[in-house]
Amino acid sequence: MAGFDLSKMKALVIDDFNEMRRSMKRMLEELGVKNVDMVANAREALAKIALVPYDIILCDYNLGDGRNGQQILEEVKERGIVKADAAYIMVTAEMGQDMVLGAVDYLPDDYLTKPFVGEVLNKRINKVLARKAHIGKIEVALQKTNYDLAIKLCDENLAGEGSPYALDYLRLKGEALLLLGECDKAHSIFSSLLERHPFQWATFGLGRAEKCSGNNRAAAQVFEELIDENNRFMTAYDQLAECHQQMGDTEGAQRVLSDAISISPRSVQRQREFGKVAFENDDLEAATLSFRRAVTLSHDSYLKSMDDYTNLARTMASNGKGRDALVLINKAKTEFKGKRNLDMQTAVVESLVHQKLGDSAKAQEAMDRVGANNDLTASQMPLDITLDLAGSNLERNEKEKAMGLLGSLLKNFYEDDLVVDKIRKVFNDHNLGAEGDALIREIRSEITDLNNRGVSLVKEGNLDDAIGLFEEAANRLPKNKTVNLNAAQVVIMQMQKLGANRTGLQQVNEFLDRVRDSDPANEKLVALQRMATEL
């Protein structure tokens, strides 16, 4: 059968049954694939994919104990260890509901239902490779965050007539525009597509474009309509919950996430978000259950996180189960031995738990292990735990410590209204509203003055001092977006003047990565990424 030359392609077969692995390997070899590896489980598959740039991956969905094929797909996509133009084909005994639900967020390129013959496999592989030949370069550009190139490639392909992949080009262009923060242009693309046909993915894109523009109420309406039409579109629930949170409606966010979890309970990230919002709403039973599920589901996954253990511990302590919380913290010390910030984070949570148990001496003993560097604590600890710690300090009449912690948080997050509101709530809960408002004004003025000093140095042509100022501030405040963006900008300006160098580029990437993690569509971030690429 005519098709792609598979002889130079590398393939991986993932199946827990030896006979099925060998059968698929034989089929691939008969189709001309000379380099075929086989593995029996997720652990082996992830190790192989991280080392070998496979062109074709045939993965069984049900791998027995441990992670399934969908979870492997999610991890390799999240970690970026699979080639963007690789053909990932899921092999299934049947198209069960759990598989379909899981695949909403990360779609494989195709499905194959057992049993199948070589001719069917050949057709599917060639079909996927044909599509990848047209859109693969665009997907690679997106994977490498080169959004301008992705848009350029889409436009070039759309300029031709009669392409069978025109919808793919428009979808990918819309995605690139959203990632660039070009909300109105993305809105225009998805709106025009919906005038032609009610594609659910285009409706989802329209909702994201509204949300990108800050129109959370309009976005929420789009996501609600999408869910009414297809109650298994799981990422629509996630986006809708975020809209409710942006509008200050945490109870609405919890209801949406609860609906999503009842349909598809195996998402670690969704369980985490539900736990956080349930805790914020004082629904401690629901928060405990959700954080416990996150711990269990992520145990053998790259998603395993110390935060899940500490969040579960603080929730248990708040729910009168402080002794169990201490047992969990000790378990975390073993599970995450050697991990950065382990001692600090567990000590903070231990202090909170002992405070709940009424043991002030042990609470203080744990806090003594944390140290007095408020900037370090605020920048490296999870936000909610730091807020709890500040509240605990206020309850122990250690106002100076609380003010220091909350001040450090404000220095990092002064631009984030949701975080500022949470900080304000800590003050209000302890009848310190006026002092809280004064501190917020003070910190905002302090950060504004710092940025103005740096800008003045740049205008004077004193780039070395500007770099020193912003570099010191950015390293002290790694979650402050404006400071880190300014630090990246002055280093770029110096390299534009004197020439690019490896150290400077590494600095720029570090500063930009800090912002990218929390605000990937930030307009200034996008502009600086372009400038850094040109260097």
Fold and architecture overview:
The structure is a single chain. By secondary structure, the protein is mostly helical. The chain is built from 27 helices and 5 strands. The protein has helices spanning 18-30, 42-51, 69-79, 97-102, 118-143, 147-158, 166-180, 183-196, 200-212, 216-229, 234-246, 250-263, 268-280, 284-297, 306-318, 322-335, 342-356, 360-368, 374-380, 383-395, 399-413, 417-429, 433-459, 463-476, 481-498, 502-518, 523-534; strands spanning 10-14, 35-39, 56-60, 87-92, 110-113. Strand 4, helix 4 and strand 5 form a beta-alpha-beta unit. The relative contact order is 0.04.
- Given the structure, what is the number of helices? 27
- Counting helices, strands and paired strands, the structural category is mainly alpha
Poorly predicted tracts of residues: 97-104
| Terminal-residue CA separation | 47 Å
Biggest sheet details: 5 strands, parallel
What shape does the CA trace take? globular
How much strand?
A: under 5%
Q: Tell me the number of strands.
A: 5
The Rg value, from CA coordinates, equals 26 Å
Mean of residue pLDDT values: 89
Q: Strand order, biggest sheet?
A: 2-1-3-4-5
Helix proportion range: over 70%
